[in-house]
Design brief:
single chain; mainly alpha; 2 domains; elongated
Length: 124
């Protein structure tokens, strides 16, 4: 049985292959295959838009990713200096551990019972 993720991946694969084939047919076979049925415009105009639109989408996507990285860097507070972090760690190590008075007054607890395993006799 196919999992949900595998089904979605297969659907994405099929859609991408179909779009790629249609794009290549429209780009290189427009004059022979498509123009007789759909007379949208000249071959040069159709090829121009078939190239210009994906380039525009890719360019805008790259700019969006750059803007997102810039926004994240601008709104994230700076980290603490390493010197401050090391002094905090050293201060925690130097502090003596203070035991609670109630813990000292308690009677010592008995150790948990251990299971005895039978010893195996060696055969000679």
């Amino acid at each position: 049985m196919v999992s949900k993720d595998q089904a979605i991946g297969g659907a994405i694969l099929i859609v991408c292959v179909v779009v790629a084939v249609l794009y290549l047919v429209a780009l290189f076979g427009y004059e022979q295959l498509i123009k007789p049925w759909l007379n949208i415009g000249s071959v040069d105009a159709v090829r121009y838009w078939l190239i210009a639109v994906p380039v525009l989408v890719a360019f805008v996507a790259i700019l969006f990713i750059g803007a997102w990285i810039g926004w994240t860097m601008a709104t994230t507070p700076p980290p603490k200096p390493i010197e401050e972090i090391t002094t905090e760690i050293e201060e925690k190590k130097e502090e003596p551990k203070v035991e609670e008075p109630a813990a000292q007054a308690k009677a010592p607890e008995a150790p948990p019972p251990t299971e005895e395993k039978p010893t195996a006799k060696k055969k000679k």
